[in-house]
Specification:
Layout lengths: L1 H31 L4 E5 L1 E17 L3 E4 L4 E6 L6 E2 L4 E5 L2 H44 L6 H40 L2 E3 L4 E6 L6 E2 L7 E6 L5 E9 L3 H10 L2 E6 L2 E13 L4 E3 L2 E11 L10 E18 H5 L12 H16 L5 H10 L2 E8 L2 E12 L3 E6 L7 E6 L4
Antiparallel strand pairs: 1-20, 2-11, 2-16, 3-10, 4-6, 4-9, 5-8, 6-7, 8-10, 11-15, 12-13, 12-16, 13-15, 14-15, 16-19, 17-18, 18-19
Length: 417
């Protein structure tokens, strides 16, 4: 009997102790298995929307200087990177055969001029003979016959025609002399513009054969120290944004590998209509103009560009991670679970739909700016509908939505302890 009483007492004590420890243990297990969330605050800040691309630095203008005449190069006056002025002498071709051609053309021209003088003298004599014959005919018709008068008359006409031929020959000789002098002048290669020599393709002693193909001797880039162009290839999906940025005068920032710590700034100068298709991707060339007073931007450099589309200051923004977060249904308040169920249903419909009409695509594009963010309310998550605006790589503008500065939003789950 005493043993039974003792066993009952022990059982009662153990039961009381178990009951007393069950609630803290349950709270501990509940706290241990509680879902932990990563959170970020809603902030006010400046934000810029950009389109990134890459491009090649090129001079605004590249003037290719060739040769119209053939011959060996006897003198070279400039080298790579030299700054030249308009009409400055760059190189000289051996002029000997062209000097000889000028001398021959001058001699031919002198001969033609002398022939004109000779024909004029003979013509004048024929004119005098005709006048005298007519005068004698008037005094007495028997002094000279009509046949002789006709001979004097037609001899004058023939000499007048010879004079025109001789004068035309003088013009031909003048043209030949001018051509010979021009070819002689072409032996001196001069720069047509002010600029920098960015390419030299000849060496002293090299022979040019211009009769087959115009040789490329120099390339001169004018005003490299004032402005350079960056030719960027922009995807067709972003051209509308680039055009809007051009109309609003938004700046373009870029860097080059040669100066990674320097940030260069330019402006959109042109959006060209000529498209390029590479592996079914359509791109358009966009020309960006940038100042280059220190000549840091050199032809051929690769530039990484950021086209600023829009910039806003002191606006309400949420972290992009909060917009990307998609919670489990079991962690969400009962009233908001239909949002997730509707999103899943829409996703299934989009997967099942192979083609959308233009109107449906437009409607889908309008819905892209509508999202939900999630805030912790007790142990569950509450959905907050928002409308997005400008975005960068970290934050997105909130155009509308019941959010306040400093409010915490869920961005993900913390790993279990």
């Amino acid at each position: 009997m005493k043993l039974l009483r003792r066993l009952v007492i022990v059982a009662v004590v153990l039961g009381v102790a178990g009951w007393a420890a069950s609630e803290p243990a349950a709270n501990y297990l509940k706290e241990r298995n509680k879902v932990a969330y990563r959170e970020a605050k809603v902030v006010r800040r400046s934000i810029s929307s950009v389109v990134n691309s890459s491009g090649e630095v090129k001079p605004v203008l590249s003037v290719l200087i060739g040769s119209f005449v053939s011959g060996p190069i006897i003198k070279l006056y400039v080298d790579f990177n030299d700054q030249v002025k308009e009409h400055q002498l760059l190189a000289e071709i051996d002029p000997q055969i062209y000097i000889a051609a000028v001398n021959g053309a001058e001699a031919a021209q002198v001969t033609r001029v002398a022939d004109v003088v000779r024909v004029k003298a003979v013509l004048q004599q024929a004119i005098n003979d005709e006048r005298r014959s007519i005068a004698l005919r008037k005094v007495n018709r028997d002094f000279i016959s009509q046949a002789e008068i006709d001979r004097f008359h037609f001899n004058r006409l023939q000499l007048e025609a010879q004079l025109k031929v001789a004068e035309a020959a003088v013009k031909q000789a003048d043209a030949a002399l001018s051509n010979a002098k021009t070819n002689l002048d072409y032996t001196k290669i001069r720069s047509p513009v002010d600029g920098y020599v960015i390419k030299r393709s000849i060496d002293p002693g090299q022979t040019l054969a211009a009769q087959f193909q115009t040789p490329e001797l120099f390339i001169v880039a004018p005003e490299m120290d004032k402005k350079m162009h960056i030719f960027a290839s922009v995807d067709e999906a972003d051209i509308g944004l680039i055009r809007r940025a051009q109309e609003e005068g938004q700046p373009v920032e870029f860097t080059v590998d040669a100066y990674p710590e320097d940030l260069f700034t330019g402006q959109i100068e042109q959006i060209r209509f000529s498209s390029t298709v590479t592996q079914n991707v359509v791109t358009y060339p966009v020309v960006v103009a940038a100042p280059n007073p220190e000549l840091k931007l050199l032809p051929g450099m690769t530039a990484d560009l950021s086209f600023q589309i829009e910039k806003k200051d002191d606006i309400l923004c949420v972290p992009n991670a909060a917009l990307r977060y998609y919670p489990d249904v079991q962690h969400v308040l009962e009233a908001d679970r239909k949002i997730l169920e509707g999103a899943e249903e829409e996703a299934r419909e989009e997967e099942e739909t192979t083609e959308l009409s233009a109107k449906q695509l437009t409607e889908a594009g309008a819905k892209r700016n509508r999202r939900h963010v999630w805030a912790l309310e007790g142990d569950k998550l509450r959905a907050i509908p928002v409308v997005m605006g400008v975005a960068d790589n970290r934050y997105t503008e909130i155009k509308s939505g019941k959010l306040t500065e400093g409010q915490k939003l869920v961005t993900g789950l913390k790993p279990p302890k």
